[in-house]
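User: Hey, my collaborator sent me this sequence without any context and asked if I could get a structure. I don't really work with proteins. Can you help?
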Amino acid sequence: METTKLKIKIIPLGGLGEIGANTMALEIDDEIIIIDCGLGFPDESLIGVDILIPDFTYLKNNQSKIKALILTHAHEDHIGAVPYLLKQVTVPKILSARLTNGLLEHKLIEHDLVKASTLINVEAKEFHELSSNFGVKFIASTHSVADAFSLIIKTPLGLIIHTGDFKFDYTPIDGKQYDFDSLIEAGNTDLLLLMSDSTNIERDGYTPSESVIKPRFEEIFLKARERIIATTFASNIHRMSQVLSVAQAFNRKVAILGRSMLKYASIARDLGYINYPDSLMVSLNDLPQIPKNEQVILTTGSQGEPLAALNRMAQAEHKQVKITPGDTVIFSATPIPGNERLVANTINGLFYHGAQVIYGKKSGIHVSGHASKSEQRLMLEMTKPKFFIPIHGEYRMLIKHAQLARECGVEHNNVLVLENGDVLEMDKDSAKIVDKVPSHKHFIEGNRSSDVDISVINERKILMEDGVINLAFVFNHKNELIADPQIKMRGLILPRNKTQANFQVELANYIKGNINRIDKSKLNDSDLKETLKSLIEDFFENEVKSQPLKQIHIHKLNY
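Assistant: No problem. I've predicted the 3D structure and written it out in C-alpha cell form, which is a compact way to encode the shape of the chain:
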C-alpha cells in the first residue's frame, strides 16, 4: 500500500488521565503492536480491590492483528497486567530486557502461563523487525529500575518515539547513561511523533540522580544507634543495591522481609543486576543472635499496604519483629497517589512504638525516577517531533505537558491530548480522533481469576458508610400485608433520642400505612419489592438522611 494512503492508529488503553495501568496499542492495516501492559492502583473508595487492569476488549476483538508486546521496564504499572492479558489474548512474542522478562516469567509461572508467549531478551541499541509495518529500536533510558528502555519505532510513515518512564540521570548507579545520540539522530530524520512521560511536569528543573541517595544512607547508618529498617519499592533494584552496599560497609547483616522484596532481590542477583556476598545475608530467625546495632532489615511496606511486613510491625502484629525505641526506619519511597493515608498510618504506628522514622521529600532518602520539566523540555528540543502526545500522567499533567510542547515549537493542532479509549488516526500530515473503544478498568481482588463487579464495590461502600437493613414481609395471594414486617438492622446511626426498637416500630408503621393505600392486586413480586424499596428509601431520606443497603425478602401465602 502507498504510504500516502496509510494511517497509523494510536489507541491508549490505560495510563492517560491516571497514574498506572500504562498500556498502548499501535495499529497499521492488519498489524498491532502493544507497548506495556500495566496494572493500576485502587484508591480508598474501591473497598477490597487490590489492583486495576485495563479493558482488553479491543485487543480480544482484533486478536489476529497482534504481532508483539514490548515492555519498556519492570515496574508493575508497565508489566503487572500481562498475565491478565495473556489469559484473554494470544501474543506471539514479548520483547524486553533480561530483568523485565525475568520478573515477568515469575509472574507467568504463578498464573500457570509460562508457555503462553515467547519471551525475547533484548539489549540496548538492538533493532527488531516486528512485522511488515513495525520495527523497534531499544535505546537505553534511565529510570528508577535497571535496564529501562525508550523506544524508537519504525513505520512506513516515519519514526515514532515512545519514551517509557524516564529521567536524564547523568551519573546512574549502573553506569548506563541515556542514549542521547539515538534521540538526536531520530530528531534529525523528521520525527513523526513523540509520546513522552508526563508524570513530573509540575516539577521545575531537573530530577536528581539516583546516586545522591547513597551519601544520605551513609549519614543515617553512621548516626543509627541500633537496628535499621529500610523500605522501598521492591522493583527499585538500584535503591536496594545501595542499601546492601552501605550495610556491608558498616558491617551490618541484612535480612530481607516480604515476598515481593525477596523475589526481586533473588531474580536481580541471579541475573547479575545486584552483587553481594552470601555472608551479608541472614534469615529472620538469625536476628535474635545478632546485636541490634549490627542489623538491617530490608522490607516491603513502602506504600502502607495493610498486609505488608512494615505495616504489621507498625501495628505490633508482626510475629518476629517488634519495633522498639532506638530503631531507625527509612522510608525510601513516596506514596503512590491514593496511598497517602495508608503510609501516614504506618508512619504514625512506627513513631508510637518508639522508632525514629525518616521520611518525606526533605529527608533526602528518595528521588523520583521521572523527568522534571526541564528534562521534558530537553526531550522535545532534541527530538523536534511533528506531532506530540503526552502520556503517563493525570489529566492536568497531560495538559501542562501539551502546553510545554507548544512552547517548544510543536504546532498547536499537532499537540494531541488523548483519553484512554480514544482512537487517534494519523498520517504524515494530519491526526484526529475517529473512534472510541472500551477502556474502563476491571477490579481484581486477591487471586480471583475474574474481576469484581462495580455493583459489589458500591454495596461495600454503602455497608461501610450507612449500614444494612433486612426486612421480611408476608403477603397473601392478593398482595395484602398480613403480618408486621420483621426488621433487623446493623451499622445504622439512628436519630438522637431514638432507640433501635422505637425506630423499627416507626418504620414498620410507615410501611404498613402506605402500602395499604396502594392497589397491589396487579403487581408481580418484582414490582411489589420495588414499591417496598421506594417506601423504605422515602422513610430514611426523611428521618435519617442516609440510605443503608436494603435486603428485602417477600414470602407469599396461597390464601
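In plain terms: The chain has a mean pLDDT of 90. You can pass these C-alpha cells on to your collaborator as they are.
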